[in-house]
């Protein structure tokens, strides 16, 4: 993850994949989204999903975990090369969260994001504000998950 000046609109970042097993779906659902189609194969088959379905929140949590892990990997690589590490700020939010297709037991979802917009912050000139579309795509090439994320990104040339 680079500095604001280094990021191009349209840049695509692939940051990992995850296979949703029946066990992982049920474990997450038991703790955080205990609906019948997330907890029981037969109930999942009888539902609109047609099978044991991962909670949308599970898919979002996996996306976040992989995104953070990839950022940590990039920071380690930059440090090892003697480069200055861009430490990103918090996210002021996201929009357009969509669970487009069900994620069923056995599906492998690959996650990526693509930069859509960027601008400097008027109130905090040392920061830029970036928006990127995060997506999850299943093993069939179908987009199953999407949201537009906003993040504060440090500027290399603070305030110039």
Share of helix, binned: 25-40%
Number of helices: 4
Strand content: 25-35%
Q: What integer value in Å does the Rg equal?
A: 18 Å
| Strand segment tally | 5
The CATH class is Alpha Beta
Shape, please? elongated
Q: How are the strands of the biggest sheet laid out side by side?
A: 1-3-4-5-2
CATH architecture: Roll
The residue-averaged pLDDT reads: 95
Q: What is the H level of CATH, i.e. the homologous superfamily?
A: Hotdog Thioesterase
Query: How is the biggest beta sheet arranged?
Result: 5 strands, antiparallel
Topology:
Elements: E1 12-19, H1 22-32, H2 36-39, H3 41-46, H4 56-80, E2 93-99, E3 108-120, E4 127-137, E5 143-154
Antiparallel strand pairs: 1-3, 2-5, 3-4, 4-5
Any overview of this molecule?
The structure is a single chain. The protein is of the alpha+beta class and 160 residues long. The protein has one domain (4-154): Roll (Thiol Ester Dehydrase, Chain A). It has four helices and five strands; from the N terminus they run E-H-H-H-H-E-E-E-E. The chain has a five-stranded antiparallel β-sheet, with helices on one face.
Which key features would you list for this structure?
five-stranded antiparallel sheet; single chain; 160 residues; 4 helices; alpha+beta; 5 strands; Thiol Ester Dehydrase, Chain A; 29% helix; elongated
């Amino acid at each position: 993850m680079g500095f604001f000046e280094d990021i191009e609109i349209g840049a695509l970042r692939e940051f990992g994949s995850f296979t949703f097993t029946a066990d992982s779906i049920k474990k997450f659902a038991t703790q955080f989204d205990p609906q019948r189609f997330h907890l029981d194969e037969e109930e999942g088959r009888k539902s609109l999903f047609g099978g044991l379905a991962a909670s949308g929140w599970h898919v979002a949590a996996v996306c976040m975990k992989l995104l953070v892990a990839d950022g940590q990997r990039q920071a380690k690589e930059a440090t090892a090369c003697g480069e200055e590490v861009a430490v990103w700020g918090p996210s002021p939010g996201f929009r357009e969260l969509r669970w487009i297709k069900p994620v069923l037991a056995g599906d492998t979802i690959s996650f990526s994001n693509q930069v859509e917009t960027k601008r400097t912050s008027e109130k905090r000139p040392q920061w830029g504000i970036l928006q990127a579309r995060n997506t999850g795509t299943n093993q069939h090439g179908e987009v199953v998950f999407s949201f537009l994320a906003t993040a504060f990104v440090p500027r290399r040339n603070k305030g110039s």
